């Protein structure tokens, strides 16, 4: 593997803001802060088991950050849940339920501004969360379940893929009021994962007919196929942004969950440390520095939650 010195040389970069995905050993001068900075990885980038959800479940939606998260819906077949729980970085607290109990839908947004679209059926149901209550809003154009989605809030989202019936490539964009169909994925699939926002997204993995490693990038207009995951899989989870994402857990063959974690640097995937509990059908959210993996199936439905701690950026000064 090439070193940072070999790639960039010995000259220190002058940047107006910190890079979004610095590599270990990278040094730069932030001209806005007037500070020399460098990236030093945490001793071990890894998963740690934290406080479990109150309700064990699989196929739930997730949104937010590692210290302000939201998990909603899900199920333990044949029971579906409307239960919503929020996370403060230490504990989970049950809050108001969704209006329609369901699983296998796209969940996006933040702890105070989230969206749930699609679900088992398949259905077109969309609900919006304002930090206190869920409200049913305008439906998707295409009913689907096992779909993925990205979005910064309940007014800006993108939903794609799923089963509806058959593997779907359809992509829909949400403006806070209505869904509009936009350009399709290149490969129709369901049980995929994703990261990003409405105008810059990454979609990876999924099925069928076999487990897929396919990765596609969305630039706000079109999907483009890029480098594959190292491990093909479905019913996995993801977090991050389109230039810096995590893909974790999933199913690599029937009834075989995995804890494999891969990190995307904007060009390719690199396998990093596995989860402590191999699982599938889980929800995930956060960043490549700090993510949450919640619930899922280990062989039985679980409430286990793990927190990912990635590389950290430390600031160096001449003092």
Describe the largest sheet. Answer: 4 strands, mixed
- Please report the distance between the alpha carbons of the first and last residues: 34 Å
The CATH class of the largest domain turns out to be: Mainly Beta
Shape: globular
The third-level CATH topology of the largest domain is Neuraminidase
Number of helices: 1
Structural class category: mainly beta
Regions with little confidence, pLDDT below 50 for 5+ residues: none
Going by CATH, the homologous superfamily of the largest domain would be: Kelch-type beta propeller
Strand order of the largest sheet: 1-2-3-32
Percent in strands = 35-45%
* Known CATH architecture of the largest domain: 6 Propeller
Number of E-type strands: 32
Helix content: under 10%
User: Over the alpha carbons, how many angstroms does the gyration radius reach?
Assistant: 19 Å
- Round the mean pLDDT to the nearest integer and report it: 92
| Number of discrete domains | 2
Tell me the layout of helices and strands.
Layout: H1 4-8, E1 13-15, E2 27-30, E3 35-40, E4 46-50, E5 61-64, E6 69-72, E7 75-76, E8 79-80, E9 84-87, E10 92-95, E11 106-109, E12 114-117, E13 126-129, E14 134-137, E15 148-153, E16 156-160, E17 171-174, E18 179-182, E19 193-197, E20 200-204, E21 215-218, E22 223-226, E23 237-241, E24 244-248, E25 251-253, E26 256-257, E27 261-264, E28 269-272, E29 283-286, E30 290-297, E31 301-309, E32 312-315
């Amino acid at each position: 593997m090439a070193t940072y010195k070999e790639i960039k040389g010995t000259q220190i970069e002058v940047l107006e803001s910190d890079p979004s995905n610095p590599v270990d050993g990278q040094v730069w001068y932030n001209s806005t802060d007037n500070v020399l900075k460098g990236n030093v990885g945490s001793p071990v980038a890894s998963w740690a088991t934290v406080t479990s959800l109150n309700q064990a479940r699989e196929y739930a939606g997730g949104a937010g950050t590692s210290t302000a998260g939201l998990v909603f819906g899900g199920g333990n077949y044949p029971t579906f849940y409307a239960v919503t729980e929020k996370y403060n970085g230490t504990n989970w607290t049950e809050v108001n339920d969704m209006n329609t109990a369901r699983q296998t839908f796209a969940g996006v947004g933040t702890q105070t501004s989230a969206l749930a679209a699609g679900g088992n059926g398949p259905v077109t149901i969309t609900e919006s969360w304002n930090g206190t209550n869920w409200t049913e809003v305008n439906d998707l154009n295409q009913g689907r379940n096992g779909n993925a989605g990205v979005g910064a809030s309940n007014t800006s989202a993108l939903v794609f893929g799923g089963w509806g019936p058959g593997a779907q490539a359809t992509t829909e964009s949400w403006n806070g009021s209505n869904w509009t169909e936009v350009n399709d994925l290149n490969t129709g699939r369901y049980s995929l994962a994703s990261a990003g926002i409405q105008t810059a997204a990454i979609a990876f993995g999924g099925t069928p007919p076999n487990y897929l490693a396919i990765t596609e990038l969305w630039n706000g207009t079109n999907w483009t196929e890029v480098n594959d995951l190292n491990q093909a899989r479905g019913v996995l989870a993801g977090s991050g942004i389109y230039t810096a994402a995590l893909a974790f857990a999933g199913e690599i063959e029937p009834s075989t969950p995995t804890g494999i974690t891969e990190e995307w640097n904007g060009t390719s995937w690199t396998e990093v440390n596995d989860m402590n509990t191999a699982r599938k059908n889980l929800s995930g959210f956060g960043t490549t520095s700090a993510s949450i993996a919640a619930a899922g199936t280990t062989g039985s439905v679980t409430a286990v939650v793990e927190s990912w701690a990635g590389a950290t950026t430390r600031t160096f000064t001449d003092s």
